[in-house]
C-alpha cells in the first residue's frame, strides 16, 4: 500500500520536510503530496525509529479456491504442447492436426490463430497450444502457470535427435510433464526411424516395443500420414492421466496469449482450467480486473460459455495481460478491484526489491531455512567431453540433506531458453568456457538468475560444495 509523505509525517509526528530530506538522501525525490511505496516508507520510518506495518490484505483470503468433492469432478480434455528441434515439423504437425480433424459442417469455418485450438474426434477432444517449442512452455512455467498435460516431441526421421530435441526433453522433465514422440518425415527417402529411437533411448526415452514406456508414433505431417493414430495415442495417454475438473463453479484459467487489437481493444486467449467462464463474469487477470464482454471460440464464433480445457478469446479486458497470468472469476466486483490494486502495488514493490531466487551465495542460508532441499543446476560447456566430466562430478555432490540435480546440460552459449528454464526451476546456471549471449544476460538480470562462469572443473565442484555448507564468498 502506498502512503503520502504528508500522511507518513503526521503518523510519525515529524515534519514533512524532514521526510522529504531523507527521501532525497535515499535518491527518491518526492513532494509532500506524493505517495511513496511500502519499502520507501519503511526505510524512512526506520530512520526515525518507527516500524511500518502493512495493512493486512491477503489475496489468498479472497482467491482461495474451494476444494472440489470427488463427485463434482468430470473428465476434461488433455492440453498438449508440441516441441522439437527447429524444422523438424512442429508447425506442419499442428496444421495437419487442425485440418485432419475438421468435423463436417465446420469445414467452411475459418480457423483463427488465437494461441490454442480445440479438436473433436470420435474418441474424444484435445486442446493444442499453438505456440510450439519449449521456450514458450517454460516462459509460462516461470510465471507459475502449468497448463500442459502432455508434450508431443517431434523428431525428424532424417535428422534425428538434435540440440533443441534434448532441450525439449529436459524442459518437459523439469516440469514433470509426460512426453510422447512423433517421429516425423517418414516419407523422406533418408528417414531412419531406428536411429531416432536409439538416440532417444540414450536420453531416457525408451520406446514401448523395447520395454520402455514412451509411446512413439511414425508420422508424416506433410503427407498427413499417421496423424489419426497419433491423436488416438494422445487420447489413450490422457485417459491414463485421469484428467478431471469441476465445470460447475466460477472459472479459473491462464492467459495463453494477449494483444491489443485496434478495433476490439485488449484481447486475451484464456485457457479455462476449472469451472465455466461466461459472458458478464467479473474477473481478476494479472494486475487487471473487469467484466467479460464477450467470448469467441478458436473458430471465431461467438459463444456464451467455455468449460475446462477450452481455449477462449476474451473481450472486455481493462489492459493487456501477460501470457501465463492467471484469470480468476469472482462474484464481487469490489473484491476483484481490491485484488488487482493489491497486485499492482506488489508488482511495484517487487521491482524495487527482488531476490527470492536461489544464488550460490545464499544457498546455505536457504538450505538452513528449509527453503530448498534440492539444488538444480543447468550446465553449458564448450565441448561434449568436459560436459561428461562435470556431469559425473556434480552428481556425486548430493548429500543426505541436499540433492544436487543437473536438470539440463548442453554445449554452446548460455541462451534465453536456459535462463527461462533456470527461472522456472529455480536453478543455477554454470558456464564452462562459454558465456551468456546478450539477450540471455539481460533476461538473467530481469529474472534474477545466478549465472557462474568457470574455466577449471575443480573450481565448479569446490564452489558448489562450499556453497552447500555456507562457505562461499560472493563472486565479484
Ligand atoms: P518447425 O520449425 O518444427 O515448425 O518445422 P516446420 O513445420 O516449419 O517444417 C519445416 C520444414 O519441414 C518445412 O519445409 C516442411 O514442409 C517440412 N516438413 C514438415 N513435415 C514434413 C514431413 O512429414 N515430410 C517432409 N518431407 N517434409 C516435412
TrEMBL record:
Q: Which residues form the Tr-type G domain?
A: 75-244
Q: Where, subcellularly, is it found?
A: Cytoplasm
Binding locations of GTP:
84-91, 130-134, 184-187
**UniProt-annotated stretches for the region G-domain:** 78-226
Function recorded in the entry: One of the essential components for the initiation of protein synthesis. Protects formylmethionyl-tRNA from spontaneous hydrolysis and promotes its binding to the 30S ribosomal subunits. Also involved in the hydrolysis of GTP during the formation of the 70S ribosomal complex.
UniProt similarity note: Belongs to the TRAFAC class translation factor GTPase superfamily. Classic translation factor GTPase family. IF-2 subfamily.
Can you name this protein?
A: Translation initiation factor IF-2
* Primary gene name: infB
Section covered of the full-length record: 385 to 860 of 966
Amino acid at each position: 500500500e502506498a502512503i503520502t509523505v504528508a500522511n507518513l509525517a503526521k503518523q510519525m509526528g515529524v515534519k514533512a520536510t524532514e521526510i522529504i530530506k531523507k527521501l532525497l538522501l535515499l535518491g527518491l525525490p518526492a513532494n509532500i503530496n506524493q505517495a511513496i511505496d511500502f519499502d520507501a516508507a519503511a526505510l524512512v520510518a526506520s530512520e526515525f525509529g518507527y516500524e511500518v506495518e502493512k495493512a493486512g490484505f491477503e489475496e489468498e483470503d479472497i482467491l482461495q479456491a474451494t476444494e472440489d468433492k470427488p463427485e463434482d469432478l468430470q473428465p476434461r480434455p488433455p492440453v498438449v504442447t508440441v516441441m522439437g528441434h527447429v524444422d523438424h515439423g512442429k508447425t506442419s504437425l499442428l496444421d495437419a492436426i487442425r485440418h485432419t480433424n475438421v468435423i463436417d459442417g465446420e469445414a467452411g469455418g475459418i480457423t483463427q490463430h488465437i494461441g490454442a485450438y480445440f479438436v473433436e474426434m470420435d474418441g474424444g477432444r484435445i486442446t493444442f497450444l499453438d505456440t510450439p517449442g519449449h521456450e514458450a512452455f517454460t516462459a509460462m512455467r516461470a510465471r507459475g502457470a502449468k497448463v500442459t498435460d502432455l508434450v508431443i516431441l517431434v523428431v525428424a526421421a532424417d535428422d534425428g535427435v538434435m540440440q533443441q530435441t534434448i532441450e525439449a526433453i529436459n524442459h518437459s522433465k523439469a516440469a514433470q510433464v509426460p512426453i510422447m514422440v512423433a517421429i516425423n518425415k517418414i516419407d523422406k527417402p533418408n528417414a531412419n526411424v531406428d536411429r531416432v529411437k536409439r538416440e532417444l533411448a540414450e536420453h531416457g526415452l525408451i520406446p514401448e516395443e523395447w520395454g520402455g514406456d514412451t509411446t512413439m508414433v511414425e508420422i508424416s505431417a506433410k503427407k498427413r500420414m499417421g496423424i489419426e493414430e497419433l491423436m488416438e495415442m494422445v487420447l489413450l495417454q490422457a485417459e491414463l492421466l485421469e484428467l478431471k475438473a469441476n465445470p460447475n463453479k466460477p472459472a479459473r484459467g491462464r492467459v495463453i496469449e494477449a494483444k491489443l487489437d485496434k478495433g476490439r481493444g485488449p484481447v486475451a486467449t484464456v485457457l479455462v482450467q476449472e469451472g465455466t467462464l461466461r459472458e458478464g463474469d467479473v474477473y481478476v487477470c494479472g494486475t487487471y480486473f473487469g467484466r467479460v464482454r464477450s467470448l469467441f471460440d478458436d473458430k471465431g464464433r461467438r459463444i456464451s460459455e467455455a468449460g475446462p480445457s477450452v481455449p477462449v478469446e476474451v473481450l472486455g479486458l481493462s489492459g493487456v495481460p501477460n501470457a501465463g497470468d492467471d484469470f480468476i472469476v469472482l462474484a464481487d466486483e469490489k473484491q476483484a478491484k481490491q485484488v488487482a490494486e493489491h497486485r499492482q502495488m506488489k508488482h511495484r514493490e517487487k521491482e524495487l526489491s527482488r531476490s527470492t531466487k536461489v544464488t550460490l551465495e545464499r544457498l546455505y542460508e536457504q538450505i538452513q531455512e528449509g527453503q530448498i532441499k534440492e539444488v538444480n543446476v543447468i550446465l553449458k560447456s564448450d565441448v561434449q567431453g568436459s560436459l561428461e566430466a562435470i556431469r559425473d562430478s556434480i552428481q556425486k555432490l548430493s548429500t543426505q540433506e541436499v540433492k544436487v540435480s543437473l536438470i539440463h546440460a548442453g554445449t554452446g552459449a548460455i541462451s534465453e531458453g536456459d535462463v527461462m528454464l533456470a527461472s522456472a526451476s529455480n536453478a543455477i546456471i554454470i558456464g564452462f568456457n562459454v558465456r551468456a549471449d546478450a539477450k540471455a544476460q539481460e533476461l538473467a538480470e530481469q529474472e534474477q538468475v545466478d549465472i557462474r562462469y568457470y574455466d577449471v572443473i575443480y573450481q565448479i565442484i569446490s564452489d558448489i560444495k562450499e556453497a552447500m555448507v555456507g562457505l562461499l564468498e560472493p563472486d565479484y
